[in-house]
Write a structure and sequence with these properties.
The complex is a heterodimer. By secondary structure, chain A is α/β, with parallel strands linked by helices. Chain A is built from 26 helices and 25 strands. Helix content of chain A is 39%, strand content 19%. In chain A, β1 (36-41) and β2 (45-63) form a beta hairpin. In chain B, α6 (136-150) crosses α13. In chain B, the strands form three sheets. In chain B, strands 1, 2, 3, 4, 5, 6, 7 and 8 form an eight-stranded mixed beta sheet that branches. In chain B, strands 10-9-17-16-11-12-13 form a seven-stranded mixed beta sheet, with helices on both faces. The chains are: A alpha/beta, B alpha+beta. At the A-B interface, β10, α6, α8, β12 and α9 of A face α4, β13, α7, α9 and β15 of B. Chain B: This is pantothenate kinase.
Chain lengths: 783, 368
């Protein structure tokens, strides 16, 4: 059954602090531009959804017209900060007790007069219909609960990486997040509301309720209230977590004296739920024990039915949701246990980070169909979202005191539609990140410390990037607080936004910077570096051309590596080499001698002696020396060999990474100096594409659709990934279906140590997929 | 069967479950004068005690209506008696065995059920008896097939409910269980075991559930203060579960047509009990009824899914949960028929809970 209406008892309101300590405008953000509303009112929680537009400052680059000599400065391009409007989805979850206060607040701040209708779903929608219509002056338009639920589920599975997780109570990290399988269908959704609905979902709009059970959350609550005289659902769960079911249940060993060996039934297995309460004196049973027994009985029963349905329909992905599950480790554990028992591990119980929002998301999507939200890609905004279990008092007392029981999810509409890189060997098992910090406590400690340490510098640079704005210091301070708070949250709950990784820490910082209108703190630094590096380009190319072929190949590789050392984001480098920007040759002193930490240069050289690649896709990293003196000469060599080159750079700024906008200008300037690059551009053999990302790392499963198309059309047979963020923190283990080259210098001594090397160790990883020996030389496979 | 065997009397089969001990006793009626003379006093006394009483101690009961007359078993003719008592009174039973010097008869006591293992040492120490332990599912299937084959006169062993979805026209009808395979055998004792049976010797335990007869009685005891199965059933027969359960129509005002759910279907068992006012307005009888309906329907659901997964259309329900429990049987018959759109047939057997004990007795006479 769907989550039902008319649950009269509010499960938690009466002991809750009713004052909202967080200012409501920090919760209901961007209301002034809100235009579409949806609401999902459940038995105890209300979920509000709206679409809004956010004005952002973005840094744009524009080329000076050098021929006209209009600019007095010798700068290559100008940077301007512009306002850009982006779309954002806001979802807020709060207790029904606040519904009236919240509606009043929304009414007071609602500006958009075009809004006439609010989509509503959930059992409580009927009960509060009149109140909503009166308070907001909007017409309540009811949507089918199950349809909304499924729509919402499809949406989060498609758009939020690490949405689904497996719960393992006794593991090092309780939450094991699943990699996003590009193909989300078919799956089974088991919604445990007051009853249970089992829904098979085969496609976006194709789903069927294949079964259900009347023994669900309502049974636990209703029967539990009768047995223990405890009224609240949460309290019942707490009782259960303290109880011993073996006092109430009849176990196999109570009947057999031990196990029932020949059937493989262990002695501790429950033979008869509540079986002991029929024989002993009634007074003997504690509330805790009865609640625990009831919890086991219901969880096992639901798990068993779910398994029977999964087997009958041959489905292996089973998601659990509904108020019985919602954020309760106790029920996630018992359901997981039951599924493991009944399927002997063949089926995994999966849970969703945003399970509570599914109905509201679905109702919103129903109302927004004319905007085609499903045509876009969306991304979770880490700055504006509360994270998993934000309102759990056990998990996070600090957060709870701050925001009461309000939980938020914000999703940004991405400019570009994101898809898999077609060259991934197995998209369903691809994991971008090299180290999962949720599982690696030592690494987690180090990186959280590292990011905290670096915060002062980031704040300083942010302020420095906006010298003309007086309030920049104030905003930077707000950024500091926000990001520090995020780091503190992640220290307590590493699982708050899915698996914690260096990438997610970096991305969260970028989201927070954007939130406070620091769109590109490095813009000026990048500009300066680009200007200086360009001056050395011709000299560098000339010196390379003077080398023999074999010397040149090595010099090119060394050039990319040396150029990459100049990364203002890495701690060791910004401490050590705030030296005047040097010529390429001067940088080489930092590099370690061969053999490198990972060294397949010989294989690469052999390969270069063979026929040219058809097309190389090059994921570039930093501005300045890196792109201009390291990458471009390398690209030039590839072009000269007859290989087409696709340069993929970030769509938006992140640290000192070169953006697509900047690279366009740089490439034009280089083309003006270099006939090889010029011919490449003219003949469409050198192409610049954007990655779709604004991260210092690289997720090959979320790339610009255009990039994917180009890769396919040009029959790309070589992927080059450069830099620590893209080739070590992420993609170090990525398996591609074509040849790949990963190049990076390890600019972090801790990480170098971890990988068994020293600071500035070099990783040069050339790989040929198994079964595809490179065209001409058998010996070239890395050993 | 026709060949006389040399197994010494008394012939017992025993099934020691989590809640009840089931005992079958073969009373020979063809004792010759010669045998009569040789028969030791202890044996006579046991025979007299068992056959001349219908109740033993405070809790032992002989189900006279199930007695099978003039049965030929192993070349002997006699009556098969069906006796039960609660498992927690097993010590009293052992004490009686000791008093009646049962061990002097040098008989093998064939026993099945978990208690055969759990209480094996008690049998030895308290009554000086050696148990021959047998697997309960083997015995169950053997017993079912045997009883069904020997009952020819009197009420049919196997029956079903005609028109299960129309309460006014729903009547019990005899069923001939010839060519019974494959069948799904659902044994509802304290817990539930579900077996797929393909032939006498080929079966598998498909699954089981801990929500069984023990759960019904256990919850009823806690919710209503009753203490026996009969009491709980009596209360259930007087109650109304719809006051306790939340129905589809309580949520949707009628049928939930989008998913083909009728308004009368239970959406949430005990769902109304989430509300304080409703908790205060229900009677103990309502609670007992709701418990019965919840447990029964759940067994029905799981059984139906197993039948679909195993591709079996005939389901035989046995076990003592169904004893004097027409309410549950009709509910199961209804649920099987309605949710399978008439595809599944629910069958029942008169000797409900005694098949394990019968199987144990057969093992004594014809070791497999």
């Amino acid at each position: 059954m769907a989550e039902c209406s008319g649950i009269d008892s509010n499960p938690s309101s009466h002991t809750m602090d009713k004052s909202i300590t967080l200012p409501p405008d920090e919760i209901f953000r961007n209301l002034e531009n809100a235009k579409r509303f949806a609401i999902d009112i459940g038995g105890s929680l209300t979920k509000l959804a709206y679409y809004s537009t956010v004005q952002h400052k973005v840094a744009k680059v524009r080329s000076f017209d050098h021929t006209a000599k209009e600019a007095a400065s010798d700068k290559l391009y100008e940077i301007s900060v512009q306002e850009e409007v982006t779309a954002r989805l806001h979802f807020i979850k709060f207790e029904n007790a606040y519904i009236e206060t919240c509606l009043d607040f929304i009414k007071d701040h609602l500006v958009n007069t075009e809004t006439k209708v609010i989509k509503a779903t959930g059992g409580g929608a009927h009960k509060f219909k009149e109140l909503i219509e009166r308070k907001l002056g909007l017409k309540v338009d009811k949507e089918d609960e199950m349809t909304c639920l499924i729509k919402g589920c499809n949406f989060v599975l498609k758009n939020i990486p690490h949405e689904a997780f497996v719960y393992a109570k006794h593991a090092d990290s309780e939450f094991r997040f699943q990699t996003t399988n590009p193909d989300i269908f078919p799956y089974l959704l088991v919604n445990i509301g007051s009853g249970v609905s089992i829904v098979k979902v085969e496609a976006e709009d194709k789903f069927e309720r294949i079964g259900g059970s009347s023994i669900g959350g309502g049974t636990f609550w209703g029967l539990g209230a009768l047995l223990t005289k405890t009224k609240r659902f949460d309290e019942l769960l707490q009782l259960a977590s303290k109880g011993q079911h073996t006092n109430v249940d009849m176990l196999v060993k109570d009947i057999y004296g031990g196990s029932y060996g020949c059937l493989g039934l262990t002695g501790d297995l429950i033979a008869s739920s509540f079986g002991k309460s029929a024989t002993a004196d009634k007074g003997d049973f504690s509330k805790e024990d009865m609640a625990k027994s009831l919890l086991h009985m219901i969880s096992n029963d639901i798990g068993q039915l779910a398994c029977l349905y999964a087997k009958l329909h041959n489905l292996s992905r089973v998601y659990f949701g509904g108020f019985f599950i919602r954020g309760h480790p106790v029920t996630m554990h018992t359901i997981t246990y039951s599924i493991n028992f009944f399927t002997k591990g063949e089926v995994q119980a999966l849970f969703l980070r945003h399970e509570g929002y599914l109905g509201a998301i679905g109702a919103f999507l129903k109302g927004a169909e004319e905007d085609n939200p499903n045509q876009y890609s969306w991304g979770e905004n880490y700055a504006g979202s509360s994270g998993l279990m934000s309102v759990s008092p056990d998990m996070n007392p600090m957060q709870r005191a701050r925001s009461g029981t309000f939980d938020m999810l914000e999703m940004d509409r991405l400019e570009r539609q994101l898809v898999n890189l077609p060259l991934l060997q197995d998209p369903s098992s691809y994991i971008p990140d090299t180290v999962d910090l949720t599982e690696d406590a030592l690494a987690r400690e180090y990186w959280l410390y590292c990011f905290e340490e670096a915060l002062d510098g980031v704040v300083k640079r942010a302020v420095a990037s906006q010298p003309d704005m007086l309030e920049a210091a104030l905003r930077a301070e707000k950024f500091r607080q926000k990001y520090r708070h995020k780091l503190q949250t992640l220290r307590h709950q590493p699982f708050a936004y899915g698996s914690l990784t260096v990438r997610s820490l970096l991305d969260t910082r970028e989201h927070c910077l954007n939130e406070f209108n620091f769109p590109d703190p490095y813009s000026k630094i990048k500009q300066r570096e680009n200007d200086v590096a360009l001056k050395y380009y011709q000299k560098a190319v000339k010196s390379l051309e003077e080398l023999s072929w074999e010397e040149r190949q090595f010099a090119l590789v060394r050039g990319v590596l040396a150029g990459n050392v100049f990364d203002w984001g890495a701690k060791a480098v910004s401490d050590k080499c705030l030296i005047p920007l040097c010529a390429q040759t001067d940088c080489v002193v930092f590099l370690s001698e061969r053999p490198w930490l990972v060294d397949s240069y010989n294989q690469w050289l052999e390969r270069m002696k063979g026929p040219p690649h058809k097309c190389a896709l090059f994921f570039v990293d930093n501005s300045g020396v890196d792109i201009i003196l390291g990458v471009m000469p390398f690209v030039r060599e590839l072009l000269s060999r007859g290989t087409e080159v696709v340069l993929a750079s970030n769509s938006g700024p992140a640290l000192n990474d070169v953006t697509n906008g900047e690279l366009q200008i740089l490439t034009e300037r280089i083309a003006a100096m270099d006939p090889v690059i010029q011919a490449g551009l003219r003949d469409d053999r050198l192409m610049l594409v954007q990655s779709g990302s604004s991260s210092p790392c690289l997720d090959l499963s979320r790339l610009d659709k255009v990039l994917a198309m180009v890769v396919r059309e040009r029959q790309t047979d070589l992927v080059i990934i450069e830099g620590m963020g893209r080739a070590i923190h992420t993609n170090y283990y990525a398996m591609l279906s074509c040849e790949s080259l990963k190049m990076a210098v390890i600019k972090n001594s801790w990480l170098a140590d971890r990988l068994g090397g020293k600071l500035f160790s070099v990783v040069f990883k050339y790989e040929v997929p198994a079964g595809k020996p490179s065209q001409d030389c058998e010996t070239s496979t890395p050993s | 069967v026709g060949v006389k065997c040399n197994i010494a009397f008394p012939w017992f089969g025993m099934d020691i479950g989590g809640t009840l001990v089931k005992l079958v006793y073969f009373e020979p009626k063809d004792i010759t004068a010669e045998e009569e003379q040789e028969e030791v006093e202890n044996l006579k006394s046991i025979r007299r005690y068992l056959t001349s009483n219908t109740a033993y101690g405070k809790t032992g009961i002989r189900d006279v209506h199930l007695q099978l007359q003039d049965l030929t078993l192993c070349g002997r003719t006699g009556n098969l008696h069906f006796i039960r008592f609660p498992t927690h009174d097993l010590p009293a039973f052992l004490q009686m065995g000791r008093n009646k010097h049962f061990s002097s008869l040098h008989t093998t006591l064939c026993a099945t059920g978990g208690g055969a293992y759990k209480f094996e040492s008690d049998f030895r120490t308290m009554a000086d008896l050696q148990l021959h332990k047998l697997d309960e599912l083997d015995c169950l299937i053997r017993g079912v097939l045997y009883i069904d084959s020997v009952v020819s006169s009197g009420p049919s062993e196997c029956y079903y409910f005609e028109n299960p979805t129309e309460p006014d026209r729903c009547v019990q009808k005899p069923y001939t269980l010839e060519n019974p395979y494959p069948l799904l055998l659902v044994n509802i004792g304290s817990g539930v075991s579900i077996l797929a049976v393909y032939s006498e010797n080929n079966y598998k335990r498909v699954t089981g559930t801990s929500l069984g007869g023990g759960t019904f009685l256990g919850l009823c005891c806690l919710l209503t203060g009753c203490s026996t199965f009969e009491e709980a059933l009596e209360m259930a027969s007087l109650g109304e579960s719809t006051r306790v359960d939340k129905l589809v129509r309580d949520i949707y005002g009628g049928d939930y047509e989008r998913f083909g759910l009728p308004g009368w279907a239970v959406a949430s068992s005990f769902g109304n009990m989430m509300s304080k006012e409703k908790r205060e307005s229900v009677s103990k009888e309502d609670l007992a009824r709701a418990t019965l309906v919840t447990i029964t329907n759940n067994i029905g659901s799981i059984t139906r899914m197993c039948a679909l997964n195993e591709n079996i259309e005939r389901v035989v329900f046995v076990g003592n949960f169904l004893r004097v429990n027409t309410l549950s049987m009709k509910l199961l018959a209804y649920a099987m028929d309605y949710w399978s759109k008439g595809q599944l047939k629910a069958l029942f057997l008169r000797h409900e809970g005694y098949f394990g004990a019968v199987g144990a007795l057969l093992e004594l006479l014809h070791p497999s």
